[in-house]
Amino acid sequence: MLGMNVDMKSRLILATGLFALSTLAACAGGNMRSDYKKNDVQPVKIEKSGDSLQITYHMPAESLFYSPGIDFVNEGGVLRIAIRRCGIKEKCDAMAKAALPPAEPWTPKVTVPYAGEKVVLVYADTEETLTP
Questions:
Q1: Taking the mean position of all CA atoms in its chain, how far away is CA 92?
Q2: Nearest Cα to 112, choosing from 76, 74, 84?
Q3: Is residue 25 within a helix (H) or strand (E), and if so which, with residue range?
Q4: N or C: lower Cβ tally within 10 Å for the chain?
């Protein structure tokens, strides 16, 4: 009986570790996603500024959610960008933090590094290629 408990604990620990690793891999790889649909955050604008991109988007007025910024990854010459959406009570960090200009509080501005790669915005319902 004791051996069975140790075996079960080992399996649970292993399963938890594998789940954590798969979650990290999903965030870093081609499974990047956004919780916002394309129409929710329009207009999205990108502008090249030296070796960075300035991204602005519309943050919907929601009482229980907000956008802390964006996540991004460079995959084989493609810069994939996803706008984050988080619950107001959850700890939520974005790779690139949004700045909210006082004059335009519903239009976050985010800066990400840029080296001339193709830019793809990832939404919950589609993907869009943008040209800076």
A1: 10
A2: 74
A3: helix 2-28
A4: N
Quick check: pTM over 0.90? no
Backbone torsions φ then ψ of 102, nearest 5 degrees: -55, -35
Q: What is the mean predicted confidence (pLDDT) over 73-85?
A: 95
User: Residue 77 burial by CB count (10 A; 0-12/13-18/19+): exposed, middle or buried?
Assistant: exposed
Q: How far from the centroid of its chain's Cα atoms is residue 68's Cα?
A: 9
d(CA 32, CA 25): 10
3-state SS, residue 82: strand
- Closest alpha carbon to 69 in 103, 41, 89: 41
- Provide the pLDDT confidence category of residue 105 given band limits of 50, 70 and 90: confident
pLDDT tens sequence across 33-46: 899 999 999 999 99
Task: Write down the pLDDT at residue 9.
Answer: 57
